[in-house]
Each structure stands twice: as C-alpha cells, then as structure tokens.
Write a structure and sequence with these properties.
The chain folds into three domains: about 5-20 and about 280-420, Rossmann fold, CATH 3.40.50; about 25-145, Nitrogenase molybdenum iron protein domain (Rossmann fold, 3-Layer(aba) Sandwich); about 175-270, Rossmann fold. Helix content is about 45%, strand content about 15%. It has helices at about 30-35, 45-55, 75, 85-95, 110-115, 120-130, 150-160, 180-195, 225-235, 250-260, 265-290, 305-315, 335-340, 355-365, 370-380, 390-395, 400-420, and strands at about 15, 40-45, 65-70, 105-110, 135-140, 175, 200, 220, 240, 295-300, 320-325, 345-350, 365-370, 385. Helix 7 (about 150-160) runs parallel beside helix 9, helix 10 packs antiparallel against helix 11 and helix 10 (about 250-260) packs across helix 12 (about 305-315). The radius of gyration is 22 Å and the shape is globular.
Length: about 425
C-alpha cells in the first residue's frame, strides 16, 4: 500500500502542546549496556541522575554494572575545580579499574547541559589519549527536550561516524535498533533461511563488531524512535527499507517481507522460512485473544511505540484503541503502520497531559498504557494501567515474542479481574 492510499489514516491526527509527562533519556542505558558487552556508559550528572539509574535498573549495591555517574558537585558548580580535569581523573580511574572497556560513552544530562560542559570536546580529547584501545564517544541523555527512548537514538547516531565505509557493491542488510540477544538470534536464523546474505546489527554485541556502511547498505529499523540514526545512516549512503515494525505476526511478517523483496527472495522460499515461527505465534496469541478481544485501551504518549502497539492490539487481539497518543509521529517511518490502522482512529501527537487525563477519565478504558508518573494516580482512580517503559525493557519483537507481548496487556486485566476491583 502506498503512502497516498493510506492518507485516510491521517485524518484523525490531533496536535497537542502543553504540559508534558516524560521519563529521562538516560534510561536508554539500561538496555544499551546489556547489549554492547564491552561498552561503558559514564553519565556526567547529579546525584539525582545516579539515583534514577539505580532505581530504574534495580542494581544491587554489590553489582558492578557497565554504567556509572560522575557526579557534578558543589565544587564544580562554584568553579573551585576544573570540571574537565575532574572528568579526566574519573575516566583514568575507571579505565584502570575496568580494563575490559573498549567503548566509553560520556553521556550528557540535564545538569551537565545547564552548566554548558562541552562533553563532545572532552570525548575527543580523551579519545586521542585512549584510542585505539578504548574509543570515547559522547551523546546527550538529557530529559529537557526528549522522550526516554530518544536516548537510544542519540547513542546509535553517535556510533554511525565510527562505522567503516563498505564497498559500494556490498549489498549488506543492517538491522538498526537494540534487540535482546535471543531476538537477534531468532531474526538471524530467519534471514539465513530466507537467504538474504550478509546481515549486521546496530548496536553490535561488541565494539570490535561495529559494522560498515555504504551505498550498497540497506537497513531495517527495529524501533520507531530512531529518526536521527536513520538520518545519519542515509547521509552515509544507506537506504531504509519501508516496513511496519516487527511487533506481532502482522508486523513481523511485513518487516521480514520488506527485506525478502529487497533481496529478490522468491515468495515460496519466504513463506516456507516463516511458516513454523508464524504458527507458533498464532498459537500463543490465541491463548490471550479471548481475554483481550473487545477490551478498550488508551495510549498516553511516552515511548513512540504507541502506533505499532495500537495496530497490534487492534488487528491481532481485537482490542479497541480509544486514543493513540505518541510524543512524536514520524510520518515517513510510520507510513506502513498507519496504513494498517483503520481510518478514523484518534491519534494525538505531542502532549497536553491534563487534557489527555480528562479524556481518559471520560472514556474509562479497560487499560491505559502510560508512563510511571501517571500509573499510580490512574490506578487510584480505578483505571488499570500498563507501564510503557516495560514494553521497551521487555523483548517483544518477532514471532516468538508475540505471545509475550499480548501477555503484557493481559496480565494487568487478569489481576484486576481476580481482585474483583
């Protein structure tokens, strides 16, 4: 379906501007540090940043994760210490303690940006001192102007300049977006069965495996919030394959088919390769569809996953989206998703949280997908909720995760039914 024929899906988009309820972009580190196994994320921020990351990650005091916070304290703010000298000292200590680090990210925060600490210059200086053993990059995880998933977008965009230049005749496929190792392995097996050829993933599991990119590279976005990463990849000559996102049977089939068609895979070969995992997904979804069909759902804007999730809930589970709120709607990247939604659904781009809360209260949906800051107040008012951040933390992409994705919506409702609330 072309973008023109899907224009009716745009008719109900409402733009809202007002008070926002967002989570910090630093939280992207939680899933990024698990994927890039020899990377370390050093947040340059406040004690609040450190507490946020400890809480979000659930890290025990004795654990040694691959992230930390270089805390800006009163001496830095008062100008009694040179912040760059302090940062150099912290990094030197860190590298001595953790010789396994091969890729170090200096991550900006609200405090470091407010005091105008130039982390790009600091990263270039430290990279000159530590490379080639350790590469040093930087990006902003500040929550001042971003939603929490844009932390991943900023991180991956910072990696793209480090990608080598692929030969122009190398028609490799690049999968862009952080996937769990189990999901990545599943997709790799399907691509092998289809016969796509060379497939690489960004981010890679190890810094030494950062793939190359060139005019022969085609890429599939695994996440809908990677607008800047897609832009810089296209600036390097790569071509994005238009596709829905790999959530549920419909999205995963369309996503894989986009690659198969780009690489001239025969339709029979493609259908044979996905037949078994698609059957497993259909069986898994059937167990949840009876419970979820006919239920209403309200999406508050938070993660940018809302459009694909609403399409999955409506088309594959029989749910009714009352409103689909999203922080930002990238019309080009989401054109295939919008085309799969029935016309007339209410979609809001941006946020005026008070107005959206009023509409949610009036609609009384069976379940609301929202950020942590809204969940407890809504629960207190009798609205069942699902934390949107859990839909990012959990592996939900692909056929074999379709049942798990449905379960994330089914469990809160089942709990509420058991409690008889």
């Amino acid at each position: 379906m072309s973008v023109e024929t899907s224009a009716s899906a745009y008719r109900s988009i409402v733009h809202e501007r007002g008070q926002r309820e967002v989570f910090c972009g630093l939280t992207g580190i939680i899933w990024l540090h698990r994927k890039i196994q020899d990377a370390f994320f050093l947040i340059v921020g406040s004690r609040t940043c450190a507490h946020l990351m400890q809480s979000a990650a659930g890290v025990m005091i004795f654990a040694e994760p691959r992230f930390a916070t270089a805390i800006i304290d009163e001496r830095d703010l008062a100008g009694l210490a040179d912040a760059n000298d302090e940062l150099d000292r912290v990094v030197t200590t860190l590298i001595a303690r953790r010789p396994d680090i091969r890729l170090l990210f200096l991550v900006g925060s609200c405090p470091s940006e407010v005091i105008k600490l130039d982390l790009s210059r600091a990263a270039a200086r430290l990279d000159g001192q530590l490379s080639p053993g350790v590469r040093v990059l930087n990006y902003s995880g500040s929550g001042i102007e971003t939603t929490f998933t844009q932390g991943e977008d900023a991180c991956l965009a910072a990696i793209v300049p480090e990608m080598g230049t692929a030969p122009t005749d190398e028609a490799a496929l690049l999968i862009v977006g952080t996937l769990s190792e189990s999901v990545e392995d599943q997709f790799r097996r399907i691509f092998d069965a289809i016969g796509v050829g060379t497939v690489a993933f960004l981010p890679p599991r190890r810094a030494a495996d950062i793939p190359s990119v060139g005019h022969g590279t085609r890429f599939l976005l695994a996440q809908p919030f990677l607008a800047e990463t897609a832009r810089v990849l296209e600036a390097r000559g790569a071509k994005r394959l238009a596709a829905p996102f790999p959530l549920g049977i419909e999205g995963t089939t369309g996503w894989l088919r986009a690659a198969a068609e780009a690489y001239d895979v025969p339709a029979a070969v493609f259908e044979d390769a996905i037949a078994a995992p698609r059957r497993r997904a259909e069986t898994a979804l059937a167990a949840h569809r009876a419970q979820l069909s006919g239920r209403s759902i309200f999406f508050f804007p938070d993660s940018q996953l809302e459009i694909p999730l609403a399409r999955f809930c409506h088309n594959e589970l029989g749910m009714t989206p009352v409103e689909i709120g999203t922080p930002y709607l990238h019309r080009e990247h989401l054109a295939e998703e919008l085309a799969l939604l029935p016309p007339g659904m209410r979609i809001t781009e941006g946020q005026h949280v008070e107005h959206q809360l009023d509409r949610c209260r009036a609609a009384r949906p069976d379940i609301a997908v929202c950020g942590l800051g809204l969940a407890n107040p809504l629960e207190a008012e009798g609205v069942t909720t699902k934390w949107s951040i859990e839909l990012v933390f959990t592996p939900i992409q692909g056929f074999d995760q379709a049942g798990d994705l449905a379960g994330l919506f089914a469990r809160p409702l089942a709990r509420r039914d058991r409690l008889g609330v």
